[in-house]
UniProtKB/TrEMBL annotation:
Domain of life according to the entry: Bacteria
Protein name in the entry: Copper chaperone PCu(A)C
InterPro entries the UniProt entry points to: LpqE-like (IPR007410), Lxx211020-like (IPR058248), PCuAC_sf (IPR036182)
SUPFAM superfamilies recorded: DR1885-like metal-binding protein (SSF110087)
Amino acid sequence: MAAGYFTVTNTGGTDAKLTSVTSSFAGEITMHTTKNDQMSGVTAFTVPAGGKLTLSLGGNHLMLMDLKRKPRVGDKVSLELHFAKGSPIDVRVPVKPATYRPEG
Ligand SMILES: [Cu+2]
């Protein structure tokens, strides 16, 4: 399992809704938000008009499950971001060392 962090900027005039993320690297990618140290799944992230969505440790993030290969630091992973409107965009996210502490 790995977590994904990056920033999406919305230069448009209307809010954008990130509804799913896919990758050839992971069998399943879910979107999580963190509140009071508790992660919970969400169905969409909103990128406000003229603003940005930041995915970060301890905040909104992606969980990548069923990884097709072991990520190495320095690798770049391609993610496809799917929005409620418009065509998907590709981002390349570098793999960084991270500590993941499972809950419970
Ligand atoms: Cu999570």
